[in-house]
Structure formats: structure tokens, C-alpha cells
Amino acid sequence: MIVDHLSVGVSDIDEAARFYDAVLACLDVKRMAKMDGLVAYGTDFIQFIAILPYDQQTATRGNGTHIAFRAKDKTQVDAFHEAVLAHGGSDDGAPGPRPYPHREVYATYVRDPFGNKLEALTDGFSI
């Protein structure tokens, strides 16, 4: 299966841009586009988008849904967690070892200012 990109709904693009600019920079991810209704990030191409809902209704988060970002090492995971807290996000699982089906990983779970659940981890499934 190939996933082209992922998106999360937000209620304020400028706030989302400030948050994700700071947080994703910790993982060497850069802003690639910003336009009416969305801000997009990636490494070599757009992979993650924060977007206003097209139906103009309130953005809602999915229960049981989260976006996991690959970190190079524990230092990046820790920096990601600190940046989230410094830019209006919240803790949902402090950095530390986590059992995964294939091996133990080092990860943190957080929420962005809009309630979307995010994870940064080392040695995830995509290594």
C-alpha cells in the first residue's frame, strides 16, 4: 500500500502554521506550501497537510486516529515533545520506550492545539 499524503483538520490555518512550523522542524520537515485553507509539509514532497474542512463545519478529530512522524533518534523525539508543549500543544504520553509488534521503539504521544493526536518515534514500521 502506498499512502500519498495525510491530513488533519484544523480551525485556524495561521495557528496551525505556527505550531507545525516549529514542531516539524525538530524532525527536519519543512513547510512546502501555504494557501487559503491549508498549510503543507514534507521532506522532498508534500506528505502532511493541516487543512480547514471543505464543508466549512468545525474540524473534529478521529477517535483512535493518530499521525506518526519518523524521528532519527531519541533527541529528535524529545525535541518534538518539548516543541509541542512550547507551542500550544499538550502531552498525551511522555517520551520513552514503547513496545511495538516488531521491536521496542522510543516514542511520544501529543495533541496539537486542535486536539489531533500525533506521535514521534524512532525505529517505527517504515525503517
UniProtKB/TrEMBL annotation:
PROSITE patterns: VOC (PS51819). InterPro entries: Glyas_Bleomycin-R_OHBP_Dase (IPR029068), Glyas_Fos-R_dOase_dom (IPR004360), VOC_core (IPR037523). Residues 2-123 form the VOC domain. It comes from the Bacteria. This is VOC family protein. It comes from Sulfidibacter corallicola.
